[in-house]
Amino acid sequence: MKTSTVKLHERPASKINLIGGRLCARQHPSDAARVLRIGLRLREALYSVLKGIVAGLAPGRHDLAALNEELRIAQGPKQIAVTAKGFEWEWNTSRPALDKILWLVSDSAAELLTSGDLSRLRQCGGDDCGWIFEDSTRNRSRHWCDMRDCGNRDRVRRFRSRQRTKRPSTRALHR
């Protein structure tokens, strides 16, 4: 059985054999459904933990337990390898690729929680968004998860509001 390796410093999903994961998901639909349920639970737990941090609240016990469970599973195949750059962490496993993405997500979240600047976490101010993001601006003034999405919608909304107040209503012109 061929082993696959994912280096932790190379976080993009493209480094995971997603094609093999899709094939594996088709061959094992019940496992794919299980991993999807776990992924959704992990997403909700991370959102609750990070939203709590933004609000200045302690994380929920169940949310932290969900993250720790995924970290425990991810640590099993984690090992140190010698590379041209020196020593690096990597995951080495012959297991199907279905849950490897969860390992990357949980490991990245743990890295943020243990060594990130949590005071820079913000919740998007866009209507109906709620995403949590890291404000990397120098003066910590970012309001939206993405200027092209939520920020642009807010700017358009404010522009239209200003235009409405400048123009007389069309009803007044037709009287």
Walk me through the topology.
Blueprint: E1 4-7, H1 18-27, H2 29-55, H3 61-75, E2 78-83, E3 86-93, H4 100-115, E4 121-123, E5 132-134, H5 147-166, H6 170-173
Antiparallel strand pairs: 1-3, 2-3, 4-5
Helix pairs in contact: 1-2, 2-3, 3-4
Give start-end ranges of low-pLDDT stretches: 1-16
Structural class: alpha+beta
Mean pLDDT: 81
Count of the domains:
2
Q: What is the N-to-C order of secondary-structure elements (H for helix, E for strand)?
A: EHHHEEHEEHH
Strand content: 5-15%
Largest sheet: 3 strands, antiparallel
User: What's the overall geometry?
Assistant: elongated
Question: How many helical stretches?
Answer: 6
Please give the number of β-strands.
5
Proportion in helices:
40-55%
Q: What is the topology, as strand order, of the major beta sheet? A: 1-3-2
Q: What gyration radius follows from the Cα positions, in whole Å?
A: 22 Å
Task: Give the distance, in angstroms, between the N- and C-terminal Cα atoms.
Answer: 81 Å
